[in-house]
Task: inverse folding
């Protein structure tokens, strides 16, 4: 066996290729960060300063007034109650949607990986390819269905819709995860007399926290960021934060208060951003789940 | 003894079937049922409400004689082609650079990917502000001394689509980068060693060896972004609301507006059927590819 040289490889101090790589990455990073910078800076200025027209400059006179106004008293058309209403609605939509959709999809994934029945793979295939159908194609019939069920224009309606459209990706996620577990585990539990629900609740769920976390990240960001379903199925009273933000910013009447708009924008983006920064690699795993087919 | 312990197979199946009922209903009623309903009623004379009077392709004829629809189709085609090429190329280049054992890899990835965590509404609103000709980037640069600097994409009919592109690419490229990076990491190290031994330059290895190997990742990414582009809606609503005039209208917005604001369901259903057809044209070759692969394996 040849003797390998040890220690760090001697390197020129200014390797042009690496300088090029780092500068491209840095320039790209600036492009990605600029909007965040602009948002924060604008939201901390008073309107006279905003009108001076320098979106990059930090505030001369720091003010939190726009934040207070965005949260508490910004106007969306007729009402001037701020984003807090939308925040509350988004939370009310989010929590049940996340719990119900994950509960259903995890059981689906479990049935599809350990208890395959005739036709189960066919349904799964339709489910996955169905997720590529534009929502617009199914909107009108869904309006009819939810109306017939008596839940159109209510919290229950929009939760129902989120559960349906969250199902393909979540089922895929859980199916792939459960399928990667050793089959012996399942067989041993069967021998010990555990049934369908017993195996799921007592064995699989306790050993799968990571995949549940990935599913939660995926659903929280997805549902929080939804606009279309909220505007159609939730009803005016229950408009989520994204709809309210759009109504505040694009309201046709009144003077445009760009600083309040930016504060409102940050507030709306805060929940998914927080989840993103805290979860790190799990977020990447979640979004890649759809791309990496099992 | 064996007989006693073994559960009734029929009953065992029932349990899984009962558990899978929501999935079965979703596939049959929503994905298949609702889509079929939409296609069927796109041939009806529906106005404010769906009616059972079928008129052949009349809705489609009207649709393709509507300037707003034709503009929408043209817009989404431009947006689609440019953003696909751009995000695939930039996403791949960023991923390739990130794969050079660089420092601060996690920081860079976090920066590139955070817009993807945001709502399209947030993205649209932020870029609306940055692109604002009166107080935004244009004014900022002019105040710095470059008086003739012009950057008012959002205000003109011919350029507003590029405003949408800037915002859309900002939001989506990080995602492409993440997928590409995952693909690059799955390339066997032996390939790199072999190409080094043969003295092949790195860029050549990327173009002639690595990219062909990553065909699957490219195709999947393409299908995911393409089917996302077809349903582009929120970003347009927040950034331009279709304006100026109808210059930045898109098909998904046409469907929504005719379905809910204008109470012309027939037009909306015909438009959404065209969207469905487009997605099928993208999807069917992909299904063949996937299916062909499984047959081999």
Result:
């Amino acid at each position: 066996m040849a003797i390998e040289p040890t220690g760090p490889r001697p390197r020129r101090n200014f390797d042009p290729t690496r300088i090029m790589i780092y500068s491209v990455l840095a320039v790209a990073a600036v492009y990605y960060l600029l909007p965040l910078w602009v948002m924060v800076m604008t939201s901390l200025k008073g309107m006279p300063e905003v009108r001076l027209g320098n979106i990059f400059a930090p505030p001369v006179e720091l003010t939190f007034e726009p934040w207070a106004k965005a949260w508490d008293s910004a106007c969306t058309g007729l009402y001037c109650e701020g984003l807090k209403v939308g925040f509350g609605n988004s939370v009310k939509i989010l929590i049940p949607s996340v719990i119900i959709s994950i509960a259903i999809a995890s059981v689906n994934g479990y049935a599809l990986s350990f208890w395959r029945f005739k036709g189960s793979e066919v349904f799964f295939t339709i489910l996955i390819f169905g997720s590529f159908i534009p929502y617009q194609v199914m909107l009108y019939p869904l309006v009819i269905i939810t109306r017939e069920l008596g839940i159109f224009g209510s919290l229950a309606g929009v939760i129902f819709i989120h559960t349906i459209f969250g199902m393909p990706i979540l089922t895929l996620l859980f199916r792939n995860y459960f399928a990667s577990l050793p089959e012996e585990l399942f067989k041993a539990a069967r021998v010990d007399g555990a049934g369908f629900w017993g195996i799921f609740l007592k064995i699989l769920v306790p050993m799968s926290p990571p995949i549940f976390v990935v599913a939660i990240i995926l659903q929280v960001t997805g549902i929080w960021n939804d606009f279309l379903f909220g505007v159609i199925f939730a009803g005016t009273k229950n408009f989520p934060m994204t709809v309210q933000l759009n109504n505040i910013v694009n309201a046709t009447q009144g003077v445009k208060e760009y600083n309040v708009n930016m504060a409102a924008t940050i507030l709306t983006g805060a929940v998914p951003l927080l989840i993103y920064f805290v979860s790190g690699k799990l977020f990447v795993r979640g979004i890649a789940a759809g791309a990496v087919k099992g | 003894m064996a007989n006693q312990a073994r559960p009734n197979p029929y009953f065992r199946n029932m349990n899984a079937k009962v558990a899978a009922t929501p999935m079965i209903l979703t596939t049959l009623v929503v994905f298949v049922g609702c889509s079929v309903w939409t296609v069927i009623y796109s041939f009806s004379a529906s106005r404010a409400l769906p009616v059972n009077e079928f008129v052949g392709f009349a809705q489609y004829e009207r649709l393709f004689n509507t300037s707003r629809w034709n503009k929408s189709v043209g817009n989404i085609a431009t947006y689609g082609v440019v953003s696909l090429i751009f995000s695939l190329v930039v996403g791949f280049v960023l991923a390739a650079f990130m794969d050079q054992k660089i420092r601060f890899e996690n920081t860079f990835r976090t920066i590139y990917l955070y817009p993807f965590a945001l709502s399209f509404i947030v993205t649209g609103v932020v870029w609306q502000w940055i692109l604002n000709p009166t107080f935004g980037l244009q004014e900022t640069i002019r105040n710095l001394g470059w008086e003739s600097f012009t950057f008012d994409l959002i205000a003109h009919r011919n350029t507003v689509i590029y405003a949408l592109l800037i915002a859309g690419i900002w939001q989506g490229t990080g995602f492409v980068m993440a997928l590409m990076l995952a693909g690059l990491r799955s390339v066997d190290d032996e390939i790199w060693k072999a190409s080094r031994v043969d003295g092949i330059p790195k860029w050549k290895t990327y173009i002639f060896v690595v990219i062909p190997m990553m065909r699957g990742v490219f195709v999947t990414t393409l299908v995911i972004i393409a089917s996302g582009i077809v349903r582009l809606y929120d970003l347009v609503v927040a950034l331009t609301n279709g304006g100026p005039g109808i210059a930045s209208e898109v098909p998904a917005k046409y469907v929504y507006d005719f379905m809910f604001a204008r109470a012309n369901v027939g037009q909306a259903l015909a438009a959404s059927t065209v969207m469905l057809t487009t997605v099928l044209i993208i999807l069917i070759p992909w299904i063949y590819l996937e299916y062909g692969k499984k047959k081999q394996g």
About this structure: Chain A touches chain B through 92 residues (CB under 8 Å). Chain A has a mean pLDDT of 87. Residues 92 and 155 of chain A are 8 Å apart (CA to CA). Chain A has two domains: 16-63, 84-289.
